Amino acid sequence: MWKDAMPLARLTEQSSILDQGFYCRPAVEVAKDLLGKVIVHARTAGRIVEVEAYLGVSDLAAHASAGVTARTRVLFGPPGRAYVYLIYGMYDCLNFVAEPDGEAGCVLIRALEPLCGIPLMRRRRPAARRPEDLCSGPGKLTAAMAITRADNGANVTVPGKFVVRRLAEEASLEIDTSTRIGITRCADWPLRFFVSGSSFVSRRAD
DNA sequence: AGTTCGATCGCCT
DNA sequence: GGCGATCGAACTG
Question: pTM (2 decimals)?
Fold first, then answer.
């Protein structure tokens, strides 16, 4: 318990960075394909087990529905960038921008299976009682990995402190679908995707 | 310029 | 299951 699943050096060696083409597709496709991929931020890393897709101006639950503003500008820009915003005055939420440059769409990262830097994550989130609680929510995983609004706009397709990787040996996984959590508009749209049976997701059902 | 309310979390009952 | 914390973007006037 509370030990890393693998050393960061080995993870780096046995994986490759997702390129811009991966993100330059419809947000729903990118969302589903991000399951099983690994986010690396500085000394911490985790496997994505739960995401939600947010679409363009037609999706009233999406920030992009407000049009281009100072906050949403990155959503309308090139794919493969991080969109990080403050929610409820205290938590940062991480998204990756999808769709071609000029079109809005993104994927909210809702839960991770911690892989590297677990003791560090634990120090940042003392409230977590089990490793399963470390990154089981959008505000939890940013706290555990120290991802903040300073990372907003970061290009995660080029080598650096913040990237998303694909393992050379990717386990096949079954995907469950549900409605998105915590929203009121477009509440019945089935745009939440998570790894079936994972104990690291924020919730099992709606 | 003032108000509203949210893509949450953790503690309380 | 309920609620308070805490802040800034978006909307109203």
Answer: 0.97
